[in-house]
Each structure stands twice: as structure tokens, then as C-alpha cells.
């Protein structure tokens, strides 16, 4: 099982801390949501583990009094936007998303002025303020489907160039203006690495996240979001699968089907694989203190919530 070193801010064992977090969650009527890229020990105490789309749906549907969101900042903001009467807590407020910071609402508005006949499609990996000036949001799981259903012929796609180009490939009848943002961890994967893995494991299909470089995507047998990769990798006939995405997903893959081998590219990074440092900055100790003291609450201006919820709801309706 994949493990990350637990940061010893607390003297209790991992299991003791996990039990105490679950006790607090029950006592405070809190729900704990965690992204697939979280540390394994954090995933284990979550009520639900999923990708951005799945977590958005859970955040919108929950009747829990407190939402503890183990993910990066834009995910916590999305939970607050979809369920504004609930208290949303972020165990590590410094955990942002570099991709989300690559586009500002002012830059979106400038694009809209330049292309007034275009619709703004905003990847969910954006700030609440960017969502507020967008026409519709998408995730990597539903981007193609949503864009196909939009009435506009011209699409402004922000901020991820890789996902934008992937959608463009599948929706050739529309014109795309694609912002040149990117996901740093996914852009670390190279075609050379994938080629070596394919040569070493010729019987293993390659599953790739669409945030990767185009040349990496071109080498894939399957391209999809994290949840779609989970489905493919755990159910395909092959006994081993090469997985090109953040290494935190390995924990879920091994839980769902431990009889397969999941191969992630080697790297000089933490735990020998490509990882998202902002996701991994959330530890059990931070979850515990955040829930115990009910700190790090996510707040947004009411005006931003009212405007940002429109493109998110539109996405959920279209999917």
C-alpha cells in the first residue's frame, strides 16, 4: 500500500488520530470529503473520496452542518458556492492550485470583450471570482459533453491548455480560444517516460489524465478524469496498468482492485512519483485541529456566490 510519511505534529498514532477525527465528525455532524490525490491516511478518514465533479455533487447534496474539505482551495470554494448555508472548513488554507492562479477575472473579461460572440468555459480548477464571470464550468470528466451541448460556435476555454486542446480535438465543429495555463504535476510527465514504461511493460495499457502534454495523451490507450481512470484501470482485462496521473490515486486503485498492478512513472519527487505538493500538504493533524476548533472557515462574498453558482449549476444540469 502506498504510504506517505505522517508529519508528527501530534504524538498519537495514525490510527488513534483517525479514530478521534471520526469521533469529532460524528459529534459535530460533519462530513469529510477528500480528493483522490490526498495522502492515503487522509483518504481513509473521509466519508467520500472522489474527483472534482463527484465532490461537487456531494457538497451540493449533503445536509451535514460542517463540510471538512480535504482538497485545494478552489474545491473548498466550490463546496461553499453550492451549499452556502453550511460551514466549509479547509484543513490547510495555503493549499491552492497553481493552475487556478494562472487566470484572473480581469483576463477573462478582456477575452470576452475581444470575442463577444464566444461562451466562456471555465475548468472547475479556477477561483470563485473566475467562475463568477464564466458561462459554464466543466471538469475533466464532463468537458467534452458540456461543450458539445453549448449553443455557441466559439468557445473561450480557461485556464488549462491541455484539457482545452483535448476538448477541441473531440468537438471539431467549434472554434476555440484556449488560455495557456497548465497543471504543473501533470506537465511533469513526458512522452519519453511513457515510452520507456510501454517498452518495459508491453502488456500494460496506458491510462492518461487529459491535463498531460499532448504527446503523452497521444500514447494513451485510455484518456479520462481521475474517476474515469479508476473505472478503467480496475476493470479492464489487463493485469497491470500504466497510470499517468498524480500518485495519490494509487491508494484508491489498490483498494478497489488489489489483484492488479498499477505502475506510475518514477520521478525524483516525493515517494518516487509525481505528486501535488499542495494536496499532500493536508495532514491528519491539520484535519484534526481544523475540525476540533472549527477553524479555517471558507468565506466568499454573497455576490460572488450568487454569480459563481450559475455556471456550476449549468454544468451539473448539462451532465
From TrEMBL:
Record localization: Cytoplasm
Keywords on record: 4Fe-4S, Coiled coil, Cytoplasm, Iron, Iron-sulfur, Metal-binding, Pyridine nucleotide biosynthesis, Transferase
Family matches, as InterPro entries: NadA, NadA_sf, Quinolinate_synth_type2
Coiled coil: 7-34
GO biological process: 'de novo' NAD+ biosynthetic process from L-aspartate
The EC number(s) this enzyme carries: 2.5.1.72
Entry superkingdom: Bacteria
Pathway assignment: Cofactor biosynthesis; NAD(+) biosynthesis; quinolinate from iminoaspartate: step 1/1
Protein name: Quinolinate synthase
Residues holding iminosuccinate: 35, 52, 123-125, 140, 209-211, 226
Stored SUPFAM superfamilies: NadA-like
Keyword flag 4Fe-4S: yes
CC cofactor: [4Fe-4S] cluster
Similarity-based family: Belongs to the quinolinate synthase family. Type 2 subfamily.
PANTHER family hit by this protein: QUINOLINATE SYNTHASE, CHLOROPLASTIC (PTHR30573:SF0), QUINOLINATE SYNTHETASE A (PTHR30573)
Key word Transferase present: yes
Main location: cytoplasm
Amino acid at each position: 500500500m502506498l504510504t506517505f510519511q505522517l508529519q508528527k505534529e501530534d504524538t498519537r498514532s495514525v490510527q488513534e488520530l483517525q479514530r478521534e477525527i471520526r469521533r469529532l465528525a460524528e459529534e459535530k455532524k460533519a462530513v469529510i470529503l477528500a480528493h483522490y490525490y490526498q495522502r492515503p491516511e487522509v483518504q481513509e478518514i473521509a466519508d467520500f473520496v472522489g474527483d472534482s465533479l463527484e465532490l461537487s455533487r456531494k457538497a451540493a447534496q449533503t445536509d451535514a452542518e460542517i463540510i471538512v474539505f480535504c482538497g485545494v482551495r478552489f474545491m473548498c470554494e466550490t463546496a461553499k458556492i453550492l451549499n452556502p448555508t453550511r460551514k466549509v472548513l479547509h484543513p490547510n488554507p495555503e493549499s491552492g492550485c497553481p493552475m487556478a492562479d494562472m487566470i484572473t477575472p480581469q483576463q477573462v473579461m478582456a477575452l470576452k470583450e475581444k470575442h463577444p460572440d464566444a461562451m466562456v468555459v471555465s475548468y472547475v480548477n479556477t477561483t470563485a471570482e473566475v467562475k463568477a464571470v464564466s458561462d459554464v464550468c466543466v471538469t475533466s470528466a464532463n468537458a467534452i459533453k458540456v461543450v458539445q451541448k453549448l449553443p455557441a460556435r466559439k468557445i473561450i476555454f480557461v485556464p488549462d491548455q491541455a484539457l482545452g486542446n483535448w476538448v477541441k480535438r473531440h468537438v471539431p465543429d467549434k472554434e476555440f480560444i484556449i488560455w495557456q495555463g497548465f497543471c504543473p504535476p501533470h506537465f511533469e510527465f513526458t512522452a519519453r517516460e511513457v515510452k520507456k514504461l510501454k517498452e518495459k511493460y508491453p502488456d500494460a495499457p496506458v491510462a492518461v489524465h487529459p491535463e498531460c502534454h499532448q504527446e503523452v495523451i497521444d500514447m494513451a490507450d485510455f484518456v479520462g478524469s481521475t474517476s474515469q481512470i479508476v473505472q478503467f484501470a480496475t476493470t479492464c482485462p489487463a493485469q497491470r496498468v500504466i497510470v499517468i496521473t498524480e500518485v495519490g490515486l494509487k491508494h484508491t486503485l489498490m483498494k478497489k482492485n488489489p489483484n492488479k498492478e498499477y505502475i506510475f512513472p518514477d520521478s525524483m519527487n516525493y515517494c518516487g512519483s509525481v505528486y501535488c505538493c499542495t494536496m499532500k500538504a493536508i495532514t491528519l493533524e491539520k484535519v484534526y485541529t481544523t475540525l476540533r476548533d472549527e477553524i479555517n472557515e471558507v468565506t466568499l462574498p454573497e455576490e460572488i456566490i450568487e454569480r459563481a453558482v450559475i455556471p456550476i449549476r449549468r454544468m451539473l444540469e448539462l451532465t
